[in-house]
Design brief:
The structure is a homodimer of 227-residue chains. Chain A is α+β, with helices and mostly antiparallel strands. In chain A, 28% of the residues lie in helices and 30% in strands. In chain A, the strands form 2 sheets. In chain A, strands 1, 2, 3, 4, 5, 6 and 7 form a 7-stranded mixed β-sheet that branches. In chain A, strands 8-10-9 form a 3-stranded antiparallel β-sheet. Chain A is elongated and about 65 Å long. The interface between A and B is medium-sized, with 29 and 29 residues.
DNA sequence: ACAAAAGTGTTGCCATTACACCCATGC
DNA sequence: GCATGGGTGTAATGGCAACACTTTTGT
């Protein structure tokens, strides 16, 4: 019998926010199977498009967002992961600043929303497994490359970076040692301006030096976070 | 138009040998397209089988070998990577001891052979790119997990491990420091026996402590190889 | 006896860790 | 003036890197 397998892409897009922590973008399905359940944005690849284009298109179509940082995660292909036909899912991993986007549910999606990664609803298909894979990739990532460029505002107080790392590592960091380490990498530029956040002393703003940041990312770097 | 994409798996299986260094397993294609060219073992996934089974089956069918260590590498899916139909390839990465197997060309393969990774012939499809991706994964791998269990003989002199790392890193290693580092990981067991290799003093044999080796592998470990 | 490979310790240095008080602002 | 978050330096430790000579065998 001729091969009868379909190919889909699915995206696990993470956002970071001081209040919410790390969130994942989900859509509520408008159609069967798993109608009304939350699921990862994604869908079948068109005949003429590349896999990368397919993910970008689906994110645009279903959630109305344009994710710049996307990389391939893993391909899930067990028979039976879709109850109707055999579909293999090529999953992607993305990072964005949620505040940069206004979510808009379209086409197959009845709703779109951010969910904190520790408060996920039940998910359609094997999407729970996909999200878990993505989270463990994200956690692993910060130990061998810098993370933050895609998740923080263009200009941010140092404590934002510190909080991001604490959230991702799920453990406290010594502020002074962390500052020393990051500063020594030379990927940050200190600005003259400050920002006030609630009570307390105003914080100086920083931004990433795009060039050095990506150089370091390409070379790879071993952070040793234990403290 | 209904989706018309096929799904294949391809395997980049590496072998290590004191004389040959790092090699890749290739087959010579018996059929069009790219008839008579060298290519990675692989082929279309059957309707009812998992991706993992598909790779194992293809390796068995085309090369007659049974690869125990296999993990997913990356999925390549550009339209046009196969000149006839659209085929996406889910590639896998494997490690074996070449001496454990006798290669046997079967089904679609006219020939099977090991090629040193620096002396590869022209390859069919985009297999050159796939092999390059696999090599860079292999190089990366040894910096965050131990490697060797799957590539060395059950019992081996310490110098084999040292040579393996030197080959993979493509740079000399200080023998004393390397010994100290590996010993401190507690993944090696020293045996009473020795082995003689050509001239020189006989070398004591070692073997991996399977349990501790895989514990370390799961936990992840940061080697810092610079020297 | 010499060539070839195996085996083995010490020292200096640098990077990581641990640790606590002052500063600028809002209320 | 007090609560809140921002900002900063030093000393001790431990892990890594550099480094060369002796041992055991074959020829």
């Amino acid at each position: 019998m001729r091969q009868d397998i379909r190919v889909a892409v699915d995206a696990v897009v993470f956002g970071y926010d001081q209040e919410q922590g790390i969130s994942v973008l989900l859509i509520k399905r408008k159609i069967e199977p798993f109608k009304k359940m939350w699921a990862l944005p994604g869908g079948l690849v068109l005949n003429e498009e590349s896999l990368d284009s397919a993910v970008h298109r689906e994110l645009q179509e279903e959630a109305g967002i344009d994710v710049k940082f996307l990389e391939q995660l893993y391909s899930f292909g067990n028979p039976g992961r879709d109850p109707r036909n055999r579909v293999i899912s090529i999953s992607y991993f993305g990072l964005v600043r949620p505040r940069d986007f206004e979510l808009v549910a379209r086409t197959d999606a009845e709703d779109v929303a951010w969910f904190n990664i520790s408060k996920l609803p039940p998910l359609a298909f094997d999407h729970k497994k996909i999200v878990e894979t993505a989270i463990s990739r994200l956690r692993g990532k910060i130990t061998y490359e810098p993370v933050g460029f895609e998740l923080l505002d263009k200009e941010f107080p140092f404590s934002d970076l510190e909080n991001l790392y604490q959230t991702l590592l799920d453990q406290p960091i010594d502020r002074r040692n962390f500052k020393k380490k990051i500063s020594s990498l030379g990927i940050l530029e200190e600005l003259d301006r400050t920002v006030q956040r609630g009570a307390g002393r105003p914080a100086r703003l920083f931004r990433f030096n795009r060039k050095k940041y990506f150089e370091l990312k390409d070379r790879g770097y071993n952070f040793d976070f234990f403290s």
